[in-house]
Amino acid sequence: MTKSKVIDQSDLFGQMPPDLLEHLRGRTELMRVTRNDYICEQGDSADELYIVFSGRVVVSIRGGEDSRESVVAVLGPGALFGEMPLFDGGVRSADVRALGTAHIVSIKYVDAERLLSERTDVLWAIVRILARRLRSTDESLADAMFLDVTGRTAKRLLQISAGEDDFRMPVTQEELAGMVGASRERVNKAIATFANLGWIAVEGRNQYRILQREQLLIRSKI
């Protein structure tokens, strides 16, 4: 996929007309990062947003006296991140680092602002993006309050599988535990339980197969 195609299909700029997109393409940069390289860090000042061109990145938040990490999301090609300070002028709200070798498209805020100001209808696309993310945050809060670790683990496995029965786990055990919001031991115990029940099969390193999706769906509901 070309850099232009990734921009065309991203959450935000996929809503823009061709003439504005053509102007934007000449004002982007492409960077290469490797596993655990940080693209941006929580608390940093910000002047650009990003689109994942290839590979995956993990979004996480640090908190507490020991700066424990809570994984918020794993993003793949076409996903937009780093846009919040564009609208509120604040600092970075989360860390974003590469899960492996990845290529990232960066766009300066000043260029994004200029383009957005020319098309007010694009602002409604932004509102829809922010609304989806707020719904996702509300859902995560509800899961933390009403689902136990086993239920949250089932839900994360279904999300990571993206509808496929055979999938590769893109994160480490520690990162999966951060996504679930529990210790690695408790998450591993939940996965072992699913395997013993015949709901999933662990086939080699980081390879999973869902055998009874309906059971996982039932277990992941509040």
List keywords for this structure.
four-stranded antiparallel sheet; 9 helices; Arc Repressor Mutant, subunit A; alpha+beta; 222 residues; single chain; Jelly Rolls; 2 domains
Task: Compile the SSE list and pairings.
Elements: H1 3-9, H2 18-25, E1 28-33, E2 38-40, E3 48-54, E4 57-63, E5 68-75, E6 80-81, H3 84-88, E7 95-98, E8 102-108, H4 109-118, H5 121-146, H6 149-161, E9 166-168, H7 173-180, H8 184-197, E10 200-202, E11 207-210, H9 213-219
Antiparallel strand pairs: 1-8, 2-7, 3-6, 3-8, 4-5, 4-7, 9-11, 10-11
> How many β strands by DSSP?
11
Alpha-carbon Rg, integer: 19 Å
Determine the oligomeric state from the structure.
single chain
Structural class: alpha+beta
Query: Strand fraction band?
Result: 15-25%
How many distinct folded domains? 2
Averaged pLDDT, please? 85
Largest sheet, strands/sense/barrel: 4 strands, antiparallel
**Helix amount:** 40-55%
Series of H and E elements: HHEEEEEEHEEHHHEHHEEH
**CATH third-level topology of the largest domain:** Jelly Rolls
Can you put this structure into words, describing what you see?
The protein has 222 residues and is α+β, with helices and mostly antiparallel strands. It folds into 2 domains: 3-136, Jelly Rolls (Sandwich); 147-219, Winged helix-like DNA-binding domain superfamily/Winged helix DNA-binding domain (Arc Repressor Mutant, subunit A, Orthogonal Bundle). 44% of the residues lie in helices and 24% in strands. The chain is built from 9 helices and 11 strands.
